[in-house]
């Protein structure tokens, strides 16, 4: 059985990661602003399913594959870091925008909202690194089933991520209204997002932690 310290540890890691702007947050905010809270919540349900897929993979010990084939893990990190840097550039480039910027987006149907939320979650390099590299480090083989520990720790991450992202969806409209009335704040938010994405991209690319065989 996992210890309270392990649960709190992975919970804090998950909180720090979900508060750092990334693909999930950008998609959920832009969709909530353009199409309303209902669309944002449907998208969030897709994101949650993406988390569950990662959880199932972690429980099945998929990180072991990366431990024995480190080239795959290196490729994952490089691709993830490059994607985050691309998102950072989109935020800070001349003419770039913030996910809170009002824009005319086509009203997607619930199925597409759900699917795009799930795909965005699955392609999120932050979540991939968490499940492949960080989560196994909180597992103690001497405390029982590794699969059970993986499941409980992964569930902790999901609860934290959905709670924070759900709050973002619910209040995205209010934040947009505030930022729209304060152009300087909107510009500051763009650069803050770009800086956070760049920081995390560098962390992902330079992280020397290796996936553990579980």
Counting DSSP E segments of at least 2 residues, the number of strands comes to: 0
What is the mean predicted local confidence, pLDDT? 81
Number of helices: 9
User: Class by helix and strand content?
Assistant: mainly alpha
Radius of gyration: 18 Å
- SSE succession: HHHHHHHHH
Distance between the termini: 15 Å
**Helix content estimate:** over 70%
- Shape, please? globular
Query: How would a crystallographer describe the biggest sheet?
Result: none
**Could you name the ranges where pLDDT drops below 50 across 5 or more consecutive residues?**
none
Strand content: under 5%
Protein model, in words:
The protein is mainly α and about 210 residues long. Helix content is about 75%, strand content about 0%. The chain is built from nine helices and no strands. It has helices at about 5-20, 25-35, 35-60, 65-70, 70-90, 110-120, 125-135, 145-180, 185-205. Helix 1 (about 5-20) runs antiparallel to helix 7 (about 125-135), helix 3 (about 35-60) packs antiparallel against helix 8 (about 145-180) and helix 5 packs antiparallel against helix 7. The two termini are about 15 Å apart.
